[in-house]
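Lay summary. Proteins are chains of building blocks that fold into shapes, and those shapes determine what they do. In this project we predict the shape from the chain. Here is one chain we studied, written as its sequence of building blocks.
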Amino acid sequence: MPISLRDVEADDVERLFQWRNEPEVDRWMYSVPPTLEEHRAWFSAFLADPDRKGWIILRNGEPCGSLTLEGLIAPQRRAKWGWYIGDAEARGRGAGRAAQALGLDQAFGPFGLQKVWSEIRAENETALKAQAWAGFRREGYLRRHAFKHGQFRDVALMSILKEEWQARRPVVVKELLASGLVAQAQGH
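And here is the predicted shape, written in a compact code that computers can read:
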């Protein structure tokens, strides 16, 4: 079941809307699910923004999730990232771990970033473990940072630097190749 990435395309608008409204995806988001009209407006702005890049995560060639980078044109050469597995059948099967490796190769390769960072709700153990596996480190903790459904939630800040990814990458790629999650090591 090899995992790959492809660029987000205009035709993905409905798929991303459906995934964003999946209860397992929504529970980790900061905001309530958008209406279709709100989502379309967000999606159009996303596609037009040179500061952002999005990919669809593919499992056996079929869309199963989304990965994004935001902050690509900033002079600091750092970007915020986020990803989720929208297809319930693909969750818990390594698609997120493999997509992270492919995304980090893009971030630190063609995009020339020095740092990738993320905000993760502190109780999202699955995402925290997945990012730690890829080499992310906890950089901070924001108490009562997110507010949704009448409750404040804490958020962990995670990051990985280019040289940390370069050091961790051989182990990650070896594990992904052995498990069949990637077809071949991508050049980096």
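What the prediction tells us: The chain has a mean pLDDT of 93.
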